[in-house]
């Protein structure tokens, strides 16, 4: 099922967001402009800003989205996109969403500068949002990204890494931004501390479920559906939940990881072992647990079309194919 059906209550806001994101690239330097434009034209589901719009409506008495929340949605997508540029450089990815990555279209130096430029733009927009608590919450996300990247880099090709360490890293790299964005949207409506905290937890559990399913798709997906080769994370030494669960059943997988997939057929063999082990099922169960926790956090909100979309999105996460 397409995400657009869940985003129906905020379709108009998402269309405006697309226009505004391209305006972000309007730097006076033509190379930075081209790099940023290349990123935003690659598209994406705009899952993060859509969540912010839905939370904004769900916590507003008049179901309206204010200017600060519109800007927060843009900031969230800019931060996310900037992090992808740097991730692609670190992981040496050739494609992203089926499009050649920035550092391959231009150069690594230009890609680093483009990512830095976007982080700087997000900080400028954030400083003008007019709510210090939201500024503090969102600013921490950028440090969380760096923390997550370092944690991931320290355990490349390390089969002894625990599921708890994987979840903690996934929070820093993915869930932190979604959690802060959901809380920020509620805060900009003057919601209570309890509401703000519940929506933070909703975003956190949604982000973790999203990341776990992303890791499942890295094993089960195709190059066409993923926009990058299957097993890309694995070949870079990023041991995700399906891999960690599989390691308890497949001793040969441990051997392939420790030799860092040096043979041409190692990745294909590792993917086969992960599928055979039942690791995918355990990872999906982990995602379902996170989804149930996210749903629980919505119980306090009054019924509305926006809340219904927030609930439906949790189910989409664990059934999505790409």
TrEMBL record:
Name assigned to this protein: Prenyl transferase
Lineage: Eukaryota, Rhodophyta, Bangiophyceae, Bangiales, Bangiaceae
GO molecular function, one term: prenyltransferase activity
Cofactor(s) this protein requires: Mg(2+)
Keywords for the protein's UniProt record, in alphabetical order: Isoprene biosynthesis, Magnesium, Metal-binding, Plastid, Transferase
GO biological process: isoprenoid biosynthetic process; quinone biosynthetic process
Family, per entry: Belongs to the FPP/GGPP synthase family.
Species per Swiss-Prot/TrEMBL record: Wildemania schizophylla
Signal peptide stretch: none
């Amino acid at each position: 099922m397409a995400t657009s059906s869940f985003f129906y209550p905020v379709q108009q806001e998402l269309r405006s967001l697309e226009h505004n994101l391209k305006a972000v690239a309007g730097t006076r330097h033509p190379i930075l402009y081209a790099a940023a434009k290349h990123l935003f034209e690659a598209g994406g589901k705009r899952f993060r800003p859509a969540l912010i719009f839905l939370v904004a409506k769900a916590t507003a008495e008049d179901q309206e989205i204010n200017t600060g929340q519109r800007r927060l949605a843009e900031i969230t997508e800019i931060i996310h996109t900037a992090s992808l540029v740097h991730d692609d450089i670190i992981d040496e990815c050739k494609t992203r969403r089926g499009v050649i990555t920035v550092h391959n279209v231009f150069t690594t130096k230009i890609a680093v500068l483009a990512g830095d430029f976007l982080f700087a733009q997000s900080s400028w927009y954030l400083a003008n949002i007019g709510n210090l608590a939201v500024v503090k919450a969102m600013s921490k996300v950028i440090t969380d990204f760096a923390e997550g990247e370092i944690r991931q880099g320290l355990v490349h090709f390390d089969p002894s890494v625990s599921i708890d360490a994987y979840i903690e890293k996934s929070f820093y790299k993915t869930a932190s931004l979604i959690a802060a964005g959901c809380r920020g949207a509620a805060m900009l409506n003057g919601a209570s501390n309890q509401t703000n905290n519940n929506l933070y937890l909703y975003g956190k559990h949604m982000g973790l479920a999203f990341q776990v399913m992303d890791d499942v798709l890295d094993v089960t997906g195709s190059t066409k559906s993923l926009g990058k080769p299957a097993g890309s994370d694995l070949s870079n030494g990023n041991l995700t939940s399906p891999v960690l669960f599989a390691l308890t059943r497949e001793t040969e997988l441990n051997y392939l990881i420790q030799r860092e997939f040096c043979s041409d057929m190692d990745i294909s063999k590792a993917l086969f072992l992960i599928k055979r082990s039942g690791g995918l099922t355990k990872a999906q169960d982990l995602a379902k647990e996170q989804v149930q926790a996210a749903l629980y956090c919505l119980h306090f909100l009054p019924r509305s079309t926006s809340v219904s979309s927030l609930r439906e999105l949790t189910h989409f996460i664990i059934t999505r194919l790409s």
